[in-house]
TrEMBL record, chain A:
<dbReference type="Pfam" id="PF00528">
    <property type="entry name" value="BPD_transp_1"/>
</dbReference>
<feature type="domain" description="ABC transmembrane type-1">
    <location>
        <begin position="97"/>
        <end position="313"/>
    </location>
</feature>
<feature type="transmembrane region" description="Helical">
    <location>
        <begin position="41"/>
        <end position="62"/>
    </location>
</feature>
<dbReference type="InterPro" id="IPR000515">
    <property type="entry name" value="MetI-like"/>
</dbReference>
<keyword id="KW-0614">Plasmid</keyword>
<keyword id="KW-1003">Cell membrane</keyword>
<keyword id="KW-1133">Transmembrane helix</keyword>
<feature type="transmembrane region" description="Helical">
    <location>
        <begin position="183"/>
        <end position="206"/>
    </location>
</feature>
<protein>
    <submittedName>
        <fullName>Binding-protein-dependent transport systems inner membrane component</fullName>
    </submittedName>
</protein>
UniProtKB/TrEMBL annotation, chain B:
<feature type="transmembrane region" description="Helical">
    <location>
        <begin position="219"/>
        <end position="237"/>
    </location>
</feature>
<dbReference type="InterPro" id="IPR000515">
    <property type="entry name" value="MetI-like"/>
</dbReference>
<keyword id="KW-0614">Plasmid</keyword>
<protein>
    <submittedName>
        <fullName>Binding-protein-dependent transport systems inner membrane component</fullName>
    </submittedName>
</protein>
<feature type="transmembrane region" description="Helical">
    <location>
        <begin position="164"/>
        <end position="190"/>
    </location>
</feature>
<keyword id="KW-1133">Transmembrane helix</keyword>
<dbReference type="InterPro" id="IPR035906">
    <property type="entry name" value="MetI-like_sf"/>
</dbReference>
<keyword id="KW-0472">Membrane</keyword>
<keyword id="KW-0812">Transmembrane</keyword>
Amino acid sequence: MTTHDTTETTETATGPSEERVDWQTKLRYFLNSDFVRSSPYWGIPFLLMGIAVYGGIGYNLAISFTDYAGIARPSFSSLDLEMYRRALADGSFRAAAFQNFVLLVGFTSISLGLGLFLAVLLDYGIRYKETIQTIYLLPMALSFVVTAQLWLWMYSPGSNGMLNVLVTTFGFEPIDWLGNPKLSLAAVIFALVWQFSGYAMVVFLAGLQSLPSDQFEAAKVDGASTTKTYVRIIIPQLKQASVGAAVVLMLFALKAFDFLYAITGNYRPPNGTDILATLMVREAFQYGQWAYGAAIATMLLLLSLAVIAPYLIFQHRQGSL
Amino acid sequence: MSQSTSDTALDVASVVEDVNLRRIGHYTIIILFLGFFLLPLITGIMTALKTSNAVANTLPFMPPLGDGFTLANLEYAFGRLSHAFVNSLLMAIPATIINVLLASMAAFGLTMVRWRGQLGILVLFLIGIFVPYQAVLVPLARFWNNIFPIADMLEPLFSIVPLIQGYHSALVPLIVTHVAYGIPICMLLFRSYYQSLPNSLVEAAKIDGASITKIYRRIILPISKPMFGVVFIYQFTQIYNEFLFSFTLVTSANSSEAPITLIIPTVGASTSGIDFGIRMAAAFLAALPTIILYVAFAEQFAKGLETESA
């Protein structure tokens, strides 16, 4: 009642004060808006995250234009693209970029394919489905570091490594899986698929279960074979799930540094498995080449943005943003 | 007529046979994959229980028999890890709690009310999920070591507090870092849950004149208990398993504040090679908390993963 009174009295005032009132009501309206009233809720987390993520990216970008190295302080007086030029001319950078690409594509497509296959297998009304699903997903609960230890032992080059036990049973010579540059990247991808294909399976399984079953029934009545039904009707509808799973898997692949570091316990991953993430940490944190590391990190960031920008646009078009 | 009946009979028989074969084939494939997912784990557990002699002389996946069985590896690994285990818990538990709370607030602020420009903030949060940590590592190391060395500042304070050591102050920058970078993904998990709630729930409260704080405390917090469980389990696992931040901020596995993931790659390593009995024991002890959480809350864990990609 009191607020109503004040507005009424001020409305009758003249000239400049009328403008002031207008401004006051506007301010009051603004302060009462959902934007301001909800801002403590999203604002505080946003500030913390924003400084860490965007402040960090900005500072990293600035450092990448300097020649900051060793224990000196970064000097921002002369900025240039020297570090980027150095990276593009460096053979180990190009090798890492290529292996990064192979890892990204190989790991993501194999995990997606296997995940889809497992999801279809389990979507068939089989017994003990929950237990089986739990076991398939179990490696996902482990850290990269633990997985790396398990597979280091599986790939052990002597005749008592698990995979070499299999190989020698069939009468072949034991193989140095991680030491052989022709096999090492495939071996790393295989171990990562072991850890994460269960993730793709869960996403696809959720997608399959959200589909209405009447289409499946209708196809059955029409006499379509099960395979045909899956390929023509069911799988095309899993687009949303596939895109989501693919993006998350690619990000796991970009973060495979933990796995590659832990598998040897030093900065240099097994022969032929160097990726941008490992190169960056080695250059910056082992050799103290901070600016060079920052430049590699910027390129890695651009790579991730190239993956996620289409994803965000896709999500927005689907109306799920 | 008789021709056709016999035909039908044949068809039915073949169909039944086909179905059985299919079912058998189906289960065979499922069991083969169970083997695929369990073999590295079984091999690891069996190896952890063997003497080094048995590790060298028996098949890696075979259980240790007679003289080959030992608990010494687990005992030794526990001795090496117990210290780091405390560090990991002191880091992961507070970080997860703060993280989950802030994320729930952010998700509430961005779903329960509408204003222009909201999508922009949301996209900034989403990009935060996908940023590779390498892109912020150099600034992060510089910030916590040179610009704002909070660990050194807090150390005297931490050595006064009972049950906590002075060196635990080095976990503070790790906790803050984990919270900051964990907010976006946890926010997304909460957001998808809040979006599934009926709109009328909040609208009714608004019409009754409830403030935003009241809506959050009285309606949203109680109703999102199950989601708090999901996000807590998901994020605790992530932070407990995290390696890169610990690696770059703590720098050495020999430091007394090193979390558990930093120590594992060094346990059982010697000049003559890796003692896999000890290494596997260490890996399993380190993985135990997340495995227990996972087995106990498999459904919540899977739900967290489903929403992550949605």
